[in-house]
Amino acid sequence: MTLFTFLFFTVLVAVLTWRITRGKGTNTEDGFFLAGRSLTGLVIAGSLLLTNLSTEQLVGLNGGSFAEGVSVMAWEVVAGMSLVVLALFFLPRYLKSGITTIPQFLEERYDAKVRALTTAVFIIAYMLILLPFVLFSGASALAYMLDLPVKLGLGDTATIWVVVAFIAIVGSAYAIFGGLRAVAVSDTFNGLGLLIGGLMITWFSIQFASGEGVSISGLFKEIKAENPDAFVSLGKKGEDVYWPTLFTGVLLLNFFYWCTNQQIIQRTFGAKNLAEGQKGVLLAAFFKILAPIILVLPGIIALYIANQNDDFNAALLNDAGERDGSRVYGSLVRFVLPAPLTGFFAAVVVGSILSTFNSVLNSSATLFSLGVYKKTINTAATPEQVVKSGRWCSAIVAVCAAIGAPVIFLGQEGIFGYFQKLNGVYFIPLLAAILVGMFNKRVDGHSAFISILVGLVIMLWGTFWGSDTTGEIFGSGYHFMGAVFVGLIILQLILGTFMKRDTDYVQSDAKVVDLTPWKPAKVVGGIMVTTVLILYLVLAR
Questions:
Q1: Tell me: the pLDDT tens digits for 315-363?
Q2: Are the CB atoms for 371 and 101 separated by under 8 Å?
Q3: Residue 183 confidence (pLDDT)
Q4: What percent of the chain stands above pLDDT 70?
Q5: How confident is the model at residue 339, as a pLDDT?
Q6: Tell me: the pLDDT tens digits for 160-185?
């Protein structure tokens, strides 16, 4: 039954996606990379959420809340505020330029060499950081959810390799042959499945933990009595997310990810108009604020169950006899979910993995085809040749990511925090250059190029070789990110005093979509930000 429901739901999504997207053009640049600029608010919201809500959150955040409590919700609820900024400030500017990629926007603002540098940074980072993490966390979830090491008769490491290969092959098919339209449509179907499945896990976890005669409020009181910090939003010193970090690295990483990260915001570039884009982004913000119900609460409950149930606790132990956070979510699903539903949820998890994986592949193809192939390798390329180059790029990136996934993340402790620190290597330098370019009209491409390179070198050093030193000086890797961000802005502004444009930068209007904003956008955005602040205040103690 488990295998049947898994295959049924997986195949159903693929068939429905094919039915909806067949006959839609994918041989043109706009058709393959931007879905013909035809995406509506609902599809944009679903695709944004599923591109983000994958096993890196399901596994990583629930593993984090298992160890540190609700303070890790910062990665979700602060994202809601960042999406408001995207809807009201960044998106109108992106759509006005009619861009397909962030490096294209940077070329318009700075010059071609900044576009080339940022294109290379994005592709390498996706291939060596983001995609390997998606594959590894997804393989970990499925392995322990379906008890695959036992069923396949393989060791833990071999099982991870097998599942990584399966996900990479299936995910590549969506991105390579269907383009952004297939990615976005399949995201929407899988998003509905993840919402239903994720809520099911939370509900069944509560039922499993509370047992007979204990109410939900009673269970939460017992959890808080056993672990007083479980529901404290501000965290405590020594944890990955302690409240001062909300104003440095956590805020900056969220801001870059949701406002300037090609992999995420590419689906907003495909909006049919600004109003639909803003609707989709703000709807996604609403669901991000609610996401801790699915992505944080189960991990908190799992700790309580592990302390009460020896069998569940044993399922979390690694070869060294220690609890492994990467095993928490998969093991929780296997223990609390009724057997007939396990296959359905496994299919949902696969869908969420594929969503992020194929979205990143599509973004990598977009960056390479339009930023490298068409600009440098074959400047006279036909639309068909450009799309073909994107498909080859997707295939190569997928293979490299599949090989790198177990190599980079296998054996790492606190994989979500480690992943975020790796992201900071390129998030921080690029965000600084983008913001300076938007708010300062005179600095030129030389200043941006130099500041990005300097930022990459400093962040690489601080992340891989100087972490002990930066920890002693700044107290947290996230504070180090904040200091580097401020330093890079100052550096570029200083360079900009003599490396400057002859005239002020004026953004041109490409007139590719209607830029009339959604009338309630500012009011809805204000409500979202207020909700986040209230949530933090309520859970502050």
A1: 888 777 788 887 888 889 888 888 777 777 777 777 777 767 777 777 7
A2: yes
A3: 55
A4: 87
A5: 75
A6: 888 888 877 776 665 555 544 555 56
What is residue 365's predicted lDDT score, i.e. its pLDDT?
Answer: 80
Report d(CA 385, CA 381) in Å as an integer.
6
Instruction: Give the type of residue at 431.
Output: L
Q: How far apart are CA 541 and CA 529, in angstroms?
A: 20
Give helix 477-495 / helix 467-474 axis angle, nearest 10°.
90
Quick one: angle between helices 339-368 and 156-210, nearest 10?
Answer: 130
Count of alpha carbons within 13 Å of 519, Cβ hemisphere only?
0
**Of 35, 29, 45, 31, residue with least CA distance to 277:** 45
Question: What SS3 class is residue 84?
Answer: helix
2-508+524-538: CATH, from 3.30.450.20, 1.25.40.390, 3.40.30.10, 1.20.1730.10: 1.20.1730.10
Tokens 């994986």 correspond to 357
Rg (CA), the chain: 23
Q: For 5-35, write each residue's pLDDT tens digit.
A: 666 666 666 666 656 555 544 444 444 444 4
Q: Among 172-181, 292-301, 474-483, which range has the highest average pLDDT? A: 292-301
Element (H, E) at 209: helix 156-210
Report pLDDT for 457. 96
State the Cα–Cα distance between residues 535 and 38, nearest whole angstrom. 35
CA atoms within 13 A on the CB side of 257: 27
Measure the CA–CA gap between 514 and 236, rounded to whole angstroms: 47
DSSP class of 318: -
pLDDT value, residue 258: 93
Q: Is the pLDDT of residue 282 over 80?
A: yes
DSSP per position, 56-83 = HHHHHHHHHHHHHGGGGGHHHHHHHHHH
Question: Residue 139 corresponds to which tokens in the numbers above?
Answer: 């393989």
Mean pLDDT lowest among 66-75, 100-109, 136-145, 471-480: 136-145
CA atoms of 30 and 28, how far apart (whole Å): 6
Q: Is 443 helix (H, G, I), strand (E, B) or coil?
A: strand
- What dihedral do alpha carbons 353, 359, 360, 362 form, nearest 10°? 140
Asked if residue 252 lies in contact with residue 428, where contact means CB atoms within 8 angstroms, the answer is yes
Evaluate whether 453 touches 120 at the Cβ level (below 8 Å): no
Q: How much is the pTM?
A: 0.81
Query: Per-residue DSSP letters for 258-293?
Result: HHT-HHHHHHHHTBSBHHHHHHHHHHHHHHHHHTHH
